[in-house]
Amino acid sequence: MCFYIHIMNIHRNLISLAEKTIANFSVPKSIKKNFTEINNDKALELKECLRYNLYRDVETSFLESEEGKRDMENQLIKRLDYDRHSVIPWLDSAKPIKNARILEIGCGTGSSTVALAEQGANVVGVDVDADSLAVAKKRCELHGVNAQFIECNATEIASKLSGSDFDFIIFFASLEHMTIQERLISIKKTWEMLKPGNIWAVIDTPNRLWYYDSHTSLLPFYYWLPDDIAYDYASFSKRYEFNELPDSVPKDLVKLSRWGRGVSYHELELTMGPIESLDIISNLSDFGIYGKCQYIYELLASKGLNRKYEKILKKIMPNINPAFTKPYLNLMIRKN
């Protein structure tokens, strides 16, 4: 057993090293030169801020577990690294980020905000969670970048930012955490805010059409279940705390939404118009060496099943953009 664990750790380290090597080769020098680093003291300050705000009510045993340590590492380092090496070059390929006016919906604890702001973007970060925003502000301060933050539900954005003009409006891993009505209202209102030539994007949002929920329940076909059944069926999940959801009395379907439910092209078609008429200009999975290598790794990890399933979706929906056949929605739409 110990030998097996040792081999698995070596495997993870080799993958991590390969990802870093690929990432360093995939980022243009014009972007890489703007990366802002923090010293050990500032890193510890950020870690304490995360502990106080994000992990305040989490048991110490979880933070000391392997899962907890990975979660903290993601918050401290990996999310920012991913955004810098994958998302930022992708966005910049469509429209220069420097001096761009960017509305980031779902800024969370600010990893993506830092990645955008250090490239010279004028960022307005929106999130519904005050604790996450406290971390985002501290993270930006430690990295020496500026951003404006607004605490509100995405449905309030159009009224709070009435008359504002943005080059990018980005839903960053956030649509999946909204109720259906919140999604429809916020997509429609933000789409209406954009001027022709500017870009609406969705990033890291699980695709409802996919057969496996790797985001929330870690169960097959979970996205397809009606909310009432999904709520009760959460008890079969092996995910910490999520499987206790059915114990809530009375049943709280909004809480289920906040954990995360899949999104598909249907919401976009209801709010933006026929999906075939939308100018979908790019899909992150097919962009650059880093995106492609990440995608290939996912295919290998699934032993080819993901690729087979993707082909099935393409057969069923031959006129739909391939971006909607991936496990996660990562796409940009240009307003015409």
TrEMBL record:
Protein known as: Methyltransferase domain-containing protein
The keyword GTP-binding belongs to this UniProt entry's keyword annotation: no
Listed InterPro entries: Methyltransf_25, SAM-dependent_MTases_sf
Top-rank taxon, per record: Archaea
PANTHER family (UniProt xref): TRANS-ACONITATE 2-METHYLTRANSFERASE-RELATED
Keywords: Transferase
Domain Methyltransferase: 102-197
